Please model this.
Amino acid sequence: MPFTVQQIENIASATLDFHMDKGIIYSQTIQDKPLLKAFDKKAKTFPAGKEFLTVRVKGEYTTTIQGFSADDTVSYSNPANIKTATFQYKRIHAGIEVTFDELQRNGISITDTANGKGESRHTEREVTALADLLDDKIEDMQEGRSRGMNAMFWRNGAQDSELVAGVKSIILANPTSATIIGGIDQSTNIWWRNRAVLGISTASPANSTIAQVLQKEFRQLVRYGNPKHMLFAGSDFLDALEKELRTNGNYTQDGWANKGSIDMSIADVAFKGMSINYDPTLDDEGEAKFLYALDMNAIYPMYMEAERNKSHSPARPHDKYVMYRAVTDVVGLVCKQRNTSGVYSIA
Model:
């Protein structure tokens, strides 16, 4: 016999739901950010500057040799080939606000109400608090900053003039166009160009077209200087490359069988001993078919000294019971050489 309405209401009044893992919030949308991780490791500092970060570059040489004998006249040259590449640094902010009302309802009181410091958690607040509201808001700010910085470092800067112009402002799909990069015209300075091959055919995986293009390109990417490459690819590019590998066969010392089962997967793809990092941001940015080969010795962020991920606790307004938290960065993205990096895409 089913419960009556009165019995159901009685159960609802007498019984609480079972809340699993109280205090833990399971985020569902955090993605890996390999470019941001790499830039965090490669970042450098600068002490101060009016507006720009500058680097001296040179791609042409004037002096040459000539043979002579007896009293032949020889010539002298006066080289003047230095150029200055300029990159603007920006001030970046990420901040949150939370009312004292919200925190009090969550069992948290602020002891220093002038600037929102010194929170205290009430005795037995776990009876009513399913999650720590303040911790969640701080985590939101930290992850929000990471997402924002990651997207900024990938984009070309056209989305917001107050943000840093990222990788796609330096590594262009059309490196021969009359475009000024860092104050230098890439169309007239051949040495100030990145490599680019777009629309690589995927029609015949057996021909290993992608692998052949990369093999050819890497001879040019290591032609100058001492590059330190990292590879970042979207999912479609990796799918196509893995299809080439599968079509042409993958062999291991153990064969196909492994402990009585057949593993249909293949190992993560690498090239020239370098892992090709899947970067979900490229999918998000509509570049799932792209691969970027970046020279991390030549392209890296520079943060003003003591101004990287700097924490702030601003004082609250006198007429609002609100707490503020923020982090700021003073940063720019610089490039000292472009012809050791490249961008590639499949059709």
